[in-house]
Amino acid sequence: MSGPTSVLERLSRVTPFGIRFWDLVTQATVVGGLAVELYALDDPQRRVSAFANRVGTFFLSRLPGSRDPEFEFGSGDADFWAALYAHPRATYAIEVTDGLGDYQPFRFTHQLPARGLVVPSCLPVASPPSDVVPLFPTASRRVPAGMAVVRADLRTPTGPAAWAVLEVQVGSTPPVRGLADREGRVAVMVPYPEPVASPARPASPPYAPGASLRDQQWPVRLSVFYEPSSAVPRVPDLCPTLQQAPAFAWVDTAGTRPLGDQVLRYGEELIVRSVIVTAAASPP
Fold first, then answer.
1. pTM of the predicted model, to two decimals?
2. Cα dihedral value 34, 40, 46, 48, nearest 10
3. What are the C-alpha distances in Å from 129 to residues 20, 117, 124?
4. Which CATH class for the 147-198+213-279 domain?
């Protein structure tokens, strides 16, 4: 038999950056296909790629341009981070793309090094889990079984409503947001609401047949958030994109017929074609 193990020395390693991504549809961590690049705002040509560990966290052991080899082997305790935060930190851009085409690209900025997982400041604190960054599906992403999808083609009077935000509320369920691509195409995937209950059976037959699941339908309210830009970016800045102002949505190019509520039927995609979007400050 072997004797008790003695720990002669314990080494800690501190990483200046860590981030985890979350699929709001499947409620799971996403790793495959994602590319995460970092660069200092004053040196965008020097980019480095983050690596994913076994629990799905992308991390870097050293920031691009960093010349502090002792940071990685610091204590990592509260005093360590307090001393670090007492001095100005550099601002880095974090750019996320998906080589599989399932999720929309985006970027955001953050001061680094950072303790814990990095989360953009514009995301709601109450979003569960609170330490992950949600991903927005593309129009080509496969719809998981048991989920509903609302598709729309968002356009301005002069072209696509690139990177517009579409908010979908099905029945009385909480609203869900989706992000359009550069061509204004957006898909918002939501769970089906609870089926409408059938009326109670009488005490004696004959019994009236209950409503079939295939006959279930729910009202859908659509809201668009959009602010036009003189130059459409290849990768949108996440926080300004999510904080766009409410916009008008029409079903005609003349802007005389507002987009009304839609109907979602069980087992069918809800497709809303050619929604005309105008900024709130400039109705047609």
1. 0.86
2. -30
3. 10, 12, 11
4. mainly beta
